[in-house]
Fold Formamidopyrimidine-DNA glycosylase.
Amino acid sequence: MPELPEVETIVRDLRKKIINQRIADVLIFLPRAVQGDPDIFVRILKGNRFSDISRRGKLLIFSLAKGADKLLIHLKMTGQLVYCHQGRLIAGGHSQADFDRHLPNRHTRAGFVFADHARLYFNDLRTFGYLRLASGQELARELDKKFGPEPLSRQFNAIYLARAAKDRKISIKGLLLDQKIVAGIGNIYADEALHAAGIFPGRAAGRVNARQMEKLVAASKRILRQAIKYRGTTFNNYVDADGQRGHFYQHLKVYNRADQPCLACGHLLRKTRIAGRGTAYCPACQH
DNA sequence: CTTCTTGTTACTGA
DNA sequence: ATCAGTAACAAGAA
């Protein structure tokens, strides 16, 4: 379940490893993981170099040294990008106890071989993730259309969120999960932010008051920053570019803690379904 | 066998 | 046109 902190961790790691390395070979193990013509995909990437790596919401964006195209990678729920030196093929993270720690394994969908023999593998158990080439213009149009502000930017503030929520009956959690409203928050961090702000996730967005909006925005930013610091949350599948787990899991206060005591008030946390997602909350401190 | 898991999009009906 | 709710997608785990 890579959300913003997990994707940000991967971006930062990969920047140190593969920038300006010549791409000697492109491996496609599952053709449908690559959107568009696989031959064109290979032709554009082979011999090229990644000149920069960035992220918008949960979407990874690889700029290329040659040509105007960008490589876009979305990890969806179970995608991993794991970098390996030659002879170091270890990747942990899948819940099945230590199965296939060698790469590529049966969940490896694509890969890049660099001139120094290092490799970057795209693994994806459930095959919802994808790799895609897009022109700069195509990408700009898509980002404009489908992505709201970054949650850690100044544009994401209480006034903005209150305006987006005005007169809307959708749950406040549903609003946070809508990537067009704010890009990068997923199920884990939505639950955590709402708990920290003391807001019931099912409350109609339009009925969250200004003071609560302030708390919610501040909590979202604080929690996302903290999660980046701990290199993300590994619940079952996520690993960073070195195949290592994230350590924010032990800082989660509500996600996956249903029936355990609220760390703020001691009341037992509950689990329900809101915005079509499993939702953990404290019935005593969230209203 | 059924139910649950999640990011995103398509679809449905209001 | 906009909004909100839900199914679908895949490959498992329990």
Q: What stands out?
A: Residues 77-78, 95-96, 125-128, 168-170, 174, 236, 275-276 of chain A lie near DNA strand C (CB under 10 Å from a C1').
